[in-house]
Each structure stands twice: as structure tokens, then as C-alpha cells.
Amino acid sequence: MSQSRIAAVDVGNDSVKAIFGELDQEFNIPNIIARDIEDRPVIGIEELDQKDPLEGIHIRVHSPALQENNAIYRVGHLASKSSNSTELDPGSSKSQEDQTLIMLFASIALDAAKGNKQGSNQVIDANYILGTGLPLREVKEGKDAGYRSKLLGSVHQVEFLVTPKYQGIKVNIKFDEVKVYPEGFAAYINLVMDHDLKIINKDLIDKRILIQDIGGLSTDIAVIKNRTVDDDKAQGFNLGVSESLENIREEIFSNHGVELDSRRDVVEIITRNNDRNHIMVKGSRTSVHDITDRILLELAKKQYRLLRNVWQKNSQTEICYFVGGGSNVLKEYLKTLNNNLDGYNIEFFEDEKESIWMMANAYYKLISEFTKKAEKPKEEKKPAKKS
To answer: How deeply is 385 buried, as exposed, middle or buried, from its count of CB atoms within 10 A (0-12, 13-18, 19+)?
Structure first.
């Protein structure tokens, strides 16, 4: 796998969405890790290779980019079952956290291992061209340059320990190029272009629009006019849905004695089609509507205030698109507030998958375009064949 492969990775607070190659591989992995002191015991070792690797990601990560090097982690679904699992904390910077890098490396190593057919106890050298992103606030603070340099110029090794199908495989990841995009700009690209970078939304191209991207830890509001993001007016805020999800989780535990594994479980309760806002308590279907409504309405009001403030400063805005996993959680509350208050022209993505995969799709489009442009000069420089 010496030739560079495209990787587009959105390390979202709730989960990591990753797209690879010629759109031939994609992963969605919960953004949860748990430190392991030693190799975990395996129950039914002979059954290990029958299971899905994504259900049992167990790795040792070696990278000079990490503050804690050479540590062992359970990742994703496996980590959610651990008592010491961690999710990104409100107030933390995505670019500064080991967890962001561990999730990034894990998803890429899974792609490299899946594309290799030689069995275990081998070393795979995998070269990638990476497109990823950071919240607008961190890009405005210049943290994208440091994040990029951490990834470039080093080899990052992921060793699969007790992972189904991949036990014993080591993946050496090297990035030939890394592009770090501001998340709001990426959302705009996704709105107006398809995977072949052809304009699909002509109506939007010359409109003045806002894109409010509500994540787990932060909210970005991109201000777009003349087909570009206005960096001066675009704003990033330290307000996401994580803290509210954590509060819901804690209240459900204190009121009903039910312990949910992660914030992801809370999201599922809030957004699922059947039995929404209900949990099982000792086998009985129980409503938690009072808890979710109160906490999420409070957050929706804060998000609506952000929209109002930015719109007032950009009064000629024509429409605001709400994107990201947080928008999906707050959609009904924000619509109700808007109907009762200002009545702005706002739009949500009714297709949940489209909203959740928006950033990863955008990074894929951007990094694909970059790669095609980089390859063209090489083709032009090739000497003509002598006849």
C-alpha cells in the first residue's frame, strides 16, 4: 500500500466519520476511548475472527504527536463498555487532545488493515493524503498549523491487539499531505458541490448565507458571501451539546437509577423514531420527556441567541442552514422558537445521515480536488515519448 490513499476524516465529538480511497470504504466509530493497563482477556478466542473489528477495536498507539505515547486503548463500542471510558470534555480544544489523534489513527489503521489480505503478525506501511478539519475558533487561533505539523513528518504506528480479524497487525501510517479545513467552510462546499466538484446548488452560489454548525463541544457560524467565508465575521463559540447530554444522562440516573453508557445513548433516546424520549426502567417503558425537554430547550435558546446576534451583524443574510449532529438533536426546539420569535429563514437537513456525514463528505471533496490539482502538473512534466 505504498501509493498514497485519500482519507477524509471528521473527528466529531459524538463519533468519527471517515471516508477512504475511491469512496470504497467508510467508518462511523463512536468517539470514546478507554485506557488499558494491559492486554485485555479474550473470552472465546476462537470466535474472535467471526466478529466485526469495529465492535472490538483494541490498539496500542505509538506516535511522537501524542502526549501519552505507546499506551493501550479500547476504542469506540468496546470503550463504551468500560468503566473508565472518556469522551471529549466541554471547553477542550480538538487540536490539543490525544483522543482526537487516537480516533484519527484508529480509523485510518482499520482502513489499511481491511485493504490487506495477508493475515496477522505483519507490518503494513500505509501512505495517506488526509483531509480533516477543526472548529472555526481553533483555526482563527492558528491551531490548525500546529495540528498539521504534528501529523506530517512522522510515522504513527497502530498495533492491533485483541481486535477481531486484525490481531497482531501493525500499521505504520505516514501522511504525504495533510489539509486542515475550517468546519464552517467545509459545510458550504458540501452544500454547493457534488463528489465530482460540480455545482449542484446554483441558487446558493451567490446568496448571502449563514451556516450554523452545532457540534458536541463548539458551535461555528460561517458567514458566506461572494462564494467565500468572511473570516472576520465568522464566529466560533464554546457552546455545544455535550454538556446538556451529560446533564440529561446524570438526571436520568438520579431520577430513575438507569445508567446510560455514553452521550451517544442519550442522543439515540432523543432522536429515534419509535419510543422517542422513553427508557426502560426495570422492564417498564418510562418517559424522560420532562428531563430532555427542559435541558434541550434551554440549550436551544442559547443557540438561537447566537443566531440572532450574528444575523443582526449581517442583516442582508438570506438563509441560515443548521448542520452537524447538534442541530439534529435541537431541530424541533429551534424550529418552535423561530416560529414563535423572529421567524428567520432557516433550513435543516431532514435526512439525518446527510447532516451527520456532511463534514466528512466535504473533506473528501476538498482533498480530492487538491489531489487532482497536484497530479496535473506531474502529468504535464512527463517527457514526451520518443518515436
So the answer is: exposed
Q: Read off the C-alpha cell for 229.
A: 467565508
Report strand pairing: 155-160 vs 209-214.
unpaired
| pLDDT digits 0-9 by tens, 219-274 | 889 888 877 778 778 788 888 898 999 999 999 999 999 998 888 889 889 988 88
- Of 152-156, 201-205, 218-222, 307-311, least confident by mean pLDDT is 201-205
CA distances for 274 relative to 14, 154, 278, 279, angstroms: 21, 47, 9, 11
Annotated domain spans of the chain: 5-184
C-alpha cell at 256: 430513575
Closest listed residue to residue 356, CA positions, set 383, 384, 331, 320? 331
pLDDT of residue 14: 81
* Spatial distance between the Cα atoms of 331 and 47, rounded to a whole number of angstroms: 42
By percentage, how much of the chain surpasses pLDDT 90? Answer: 53
Predicted confidence (pLDDT) at residue 302 exceeds the cutoff of 90:
yes
Looking at domain 5-184, what is its CATH homologous superfamily?
ATPase, nucleotide binding domain (3.30.420.40)
Q: Residue 248: its pLDDT value, please?
A: 95
What's residue 246's pLDDT? 92
With vertex at residue 210, the alpha carbon angle to CA 195 and CA 355, rounded to the nearest 5 degrees, is 45
More confident residue, 297 or 206: 297
